[in-house]
Amino acid sequence: MEKNQWAIPSLETDRLLLRQLSSNDIDDIFFLFSDPQVMKFEGEITMTDRKQAEQYVAMFGNPFWYVAQQSVVWAFVEKETNRVIGTGGLRHWNGGSRAEVGLDVVQDCWSKGYGSEALHAMIAFAFQTLKLHEVYAYIHTKNKAAVQLVKRAGFEYRGSVENYPLANQYVQALFFIKKKFP
C-alpha cells in the first residue's frame, strides 16, 4: 500500500470531499454526535460536551491509525457549503484483507444520497487502494435505512449476531458483507 507518511488520503465524489478530520471540524462533529436521532442506533450515547468532540477529532483525525494499517476515518465535507455533514471509515482492518465500514450523517442530509456516495467511495478505496478482499458492516436490527443503504451498495446479508458490542451495551445486529471478487 502506498501512502503519504502521516496523511490520510482524501477521496472525492460528485458532492463530497472525504478528508482527514481537523481541529476546524470540532463544532460540526459535536453537532453530529450530540443529535440523539443520529446516535439512536449507535448505542444512544450522545456527546454532551464540546471537549468530547475535541477528543474524537484528536483520536480519529490522527493518521497514526491509517499508517499502522488499523483504521481510517474521514470527515464528509459537502463541497457546495464546505460543511462537515458526517464521518465514516474503515476499522478492524489490522493490515489484513477485510475491514468493517461505517458512517454517520447529520439529520438534515438524510435521504439525499450522501451516505451512498460516501459508502461507495470508501468501498472503492478499500478494494483499490488498500487491496482488501471484503468489506463488512454490522447494523442494528432496527436501523432500516442503513440496511437499505448497504443492500443498494451490493452487500449480502449473512446473518445476525446476538451480542454485538455497541458503545456501552450488547445488541442484536445484522451482518452484511461485500466481496471484491464475488
SSE arrangement, N to C: EEHHHEEEHEHEE
Instruction: Find the structural class using helix and strand composition.
Output: alpha+beta
Structure annotation, total helices = 5
How do the strands of the widest beta sheet line up side by side? 1-2-3-4-5-6-8-7
CATH class membership of the domain at 11-132: Alpha Beta
How far the N terminus sits from the C terminus, by CA atoms, comes to 22 Å
Question: What features would you describe in this structure?
Answer:
The protein has 182 residues and is an alpha+beta fold. The protein has a domain at 11-132: Aminopeptidase (3-Layer(aba) Sandwich), CATH 3.40.630.30. It has 5 helices and 8 strands. Strands 1-2-3-4-5-6-8-7 form an 8-stranded mixed sheet, with helices on both faces. Helix 4 links the parallel strand 5 (98-105) and strand 6 (134-140). Helix 1 packs across helix 2. The two termini are 22 Å apart. Pfam families: Acetyltransf_3 (PF13302). This is N-acetyltransferase domain-containing protein. InterPro entries: Acyl_CoA_acyltransferase, GNAT_dom, N-acetyltransferase.
Summarize the entry for a quick read.
The protein is of the alpha+beta class and 182 residues long.
